[in-house]
Amino acid sequence: MSIMADDPVFIPSSVRAAITIRNAAEDPCINEVTIQRMVASEPMVAAALLRLANSAAYRRGRLIESVADAVMLLGMGEVRAVASQVAMLQIVRGIRGRAARMVAESLLLHSISISVFAEHLAREREGCEASRVATLGLFHEMPTFLFLAGSNQSPEKFETLSDISRLSEAIPLRSFELLMQDFGLHSLAIPRTAESQVVDQAHCFVTHPNPLRIHPLEGGDRKGMPPEQIVLLQAMADAAYVTLVEGPLPECRDSRPPPASIGLEAQDDEPEEPHGDQQAPEAPRGGLVARLQAMLGSLFGSR
What we know:
The chain has helices at about 15-25, 30-40, 45-55, 65-75, 75-95, 100-125, 130-140, 140-150, 160-170, 175-180, 195-200, 225-245, 290-300. By secondary structure, the protein is an all-alpha fold.
């Protein structure tokens, strides 16, 4: 299980590309047109942004069909958030073991939930930048995702949920700091104390716990937030997860390649599934998207 050692990790080009978009959207020196072209060159990020732009929370009466319109509507903050979520989704979809994949999908929903609650809590705490804390909340379980990716190298050790649970207790996880550096997220490698406290506090409120390691604060004191606020934020997290992973997608009109100066690497290092993430998205399962969007439509109806 060398994947647990603190040596450089293999990062698929699709994940690197999503992280590149995320970092570019944070850079004030990169203009919006360049971001639009970068997004248009990455089908997963473009699809997720278009689904979000056409969700009940953002839709303004007309169908958003181009990446340029989606970026203009959502703004750089949402581009960063969606690109980060897509990077996580790519990691989950790269996990081939059935049991490990199930755990990773549950962990992704947990991570998105923590991100939503942490962002809300950070707005009320001095010295915390809400968008940065949201990103830390989303990535806070990255070492566990890397652990689950070990099922690709040693499938026999990850055959059942019980095997994974026992293994997670026996194998030390890779350090968050070094992992963030490997992913090119150097500014997030060492969270400030206040930021870590907010991410920890968010565990009190989520209803989707870590399936492997229960955080000490999960299911703890919820007095710091009204029950209706907890329901609203969890609904937002659920909707973000569903919008990310499924739902119909209008055809993207803007598919121009990025300029040569962007330097995204060709995605030629994933021979197992060369174009799996670029297929047309599946139809919603069980009407979950419609139900969540209807619920959010009533919650955001006054917007």
